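Example S7 (C-alpha cells).
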C-alpha cells in the first residue's frame, strides 16, 4: 500500500511538472514573445521592430510539442503539428519544443528556427548543452533533403537556428546570450567565400540570471519575469505591458495564469514533501538516540550491580563488537 501511494504521488507530481513545462512552451510560442527572442538572438532581425517581426515575418502558427508525463523516460511524446519530428531509418526520432519558419527581412528567404526550453538545474548534464544545440542544427539541415532540396541542389538549404533558454545556468553564464556559428578563417592565403554559402547554422544559449546581476534588461529580463516563481500574475502582467509593450491577449493571460498556478502548486508540494521528510528523519534519529541512551543505562546498571567491567556488561547485552569501542568512550 505504501509503495502504491509513493508511486501514485510520484506520477501526480511528474504530471504537474509536465503541465507546467507545457504551459511555459505555450506562452513562449506566442508570436510577440518569439519576436523579442528573435530580435535579440537572430542577426537577420536585429534591426527590425519587435511588433513588425511578430506581425510580418513569423510564418503561420508555431508548432508546439506536448510534454510527456515523464519527459526523461518517455521517448515518444505526442506532437501537435505536422512537421515537429525528424526521422531516418537508422537514427532515432527527435522532437522539438517549438518550431517555426520566419522570412528574412532583407533577402526574403525562409529561415528555419526551433526554440528549445531547458529548465534543468545542471547546465552540463553529462554533456554540453551547446553540443546538443549544434546537433539539433545539424538534424534540421539534414532533414531538409527531400523537402527543401533534392539531388545536388544544396544551394536551396535553409539556414537554421537552435535557441536554448536555460533557467538555472552556472553563475559565470548568468544574464548572458551567446551564439555559436560557422565562420571563415584563412589558414594559408587570403580568399573570401560568400557568407551565405557556409553561414547555415547558429546555436544560441540564453542564460537567465537575476535582477541584481549585470545585463539584466531586454529579453533576459522578459524571460526571467515570465518564468519567475516569486512574481504573481498581476506583477508579471504589469511588467510585460509597461516594459515590453506586450498586449494582454486572452491566450497570454491564460498562459501566465497557468504558469503561476502550476508553479505555486509545485512549490507548495516541495515544501510539504520537505517537511514530511524532515519529520520522518527526525523520528528515526530520535528512535536511534533513545535506543542508544537506554542501552548505555543498561550497561551502567550491570557494571554497578554485577561489578562487571564495561566489556563484560556489553558482552552480556550482546552489543556488537564493532560498536563496543564507541559505547565505551561514551561511558
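Recovered sequence:
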Amino acid at each position: 500500500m505504501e509503495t502504491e501511494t509513493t508511486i501514485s504521488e510520484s506520477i501526480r507530481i511528474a504530471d504537474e511538472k509536465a503541465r507546467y513545462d507545457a504551459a511555459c512552451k505555450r506562452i513562449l510560442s506566442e508570436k510577440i514573445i518569439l519576436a523579442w527572442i528573435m530580435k535579440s538572438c537572430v542577426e537577420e532581425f536585429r534591426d527590425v521592430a519587435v511588433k513588425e517581426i511578430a506581425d510580418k515575418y513569423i510564418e503561420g502558427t508555431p508548432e508546439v510539442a506536448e510534454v510527456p508525463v515523464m519527459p526523461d523516460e518517455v521517448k515518444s511524446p505526442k506532437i501537435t503539428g505536422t512537421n515537429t519530428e525528424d526521422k531516418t531509418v537508422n537514427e532515432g526520432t527527435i522532437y522539438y519544443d517549438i518550431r517555426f519558419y520566419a522570412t528574412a527581412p532583407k533577402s526574403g528567404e525562409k529561415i528555419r528556427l526551433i526554440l528549445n526550453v531547458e529548465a534543468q538545474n545542471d547546465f552540463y548534464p553529462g554533456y554540453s548543452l551547446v553540443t546538443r544545440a549544434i546537433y539539433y542544427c545539424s538534424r534540421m539541415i539534414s532533414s531538409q533533403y527531400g523537402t527543401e532540396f533534392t539531388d545536388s541542389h544544396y544551394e536551396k538549404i535553409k539556414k537554421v537556428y537552435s535557441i536554448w533558454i536555460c533557467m538555472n545556468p552556472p553563475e559565470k553564464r548568468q544574464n548572458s546570450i551567446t551564439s555559436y556559428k560557422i565562420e571563415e578563417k584563412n589558414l594559408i592565403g587570403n580568399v573570401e567565400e560568400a557568407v551565405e554559402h557556409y553561414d547555415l547554422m547558429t546555436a544560441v544559449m540564453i542564460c537567465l540570471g537575476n535582477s541584481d546581476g549585470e545585463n539584466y534588461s531586454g529579453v533576459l529580463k522578459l524571460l526571467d519575469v515570465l518564468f519567475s516563481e516569486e512574481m504573481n500574475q498581476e506583477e508579471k502582467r504589469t511588467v510585460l505591458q509597461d516594459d515590453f509593450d506586450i498586449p494582454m491577449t486572452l491566450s497570454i493571460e491564460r498562459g501566465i495564469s497557468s504558469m503561476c498556478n502550476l508553479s505555486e502548486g509545485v512549490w507548495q508540494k516541495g515544501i510539504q514533501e520537505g517537511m514530511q521528510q524532515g519529520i520522518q528523519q527526525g523520528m528515526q534519529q530520535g528512535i536511534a538516540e533513545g535506543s542508544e541512551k537506554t542501552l548505555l543505562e543498561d550497561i551502567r546498571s550491570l557494571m554497578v550491580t554485577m561489578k562487571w567491567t564495561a566489556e563484560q556488561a556489553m558482552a552480556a547485552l550482546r552489543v556488537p563488537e564493532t560498536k563496543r569501542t564507541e559505547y565505551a568512550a561514551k561511558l
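Notes on this example. Confidence is low (pLDDT under 50) at residues 66-83, 87-94, 265-269.
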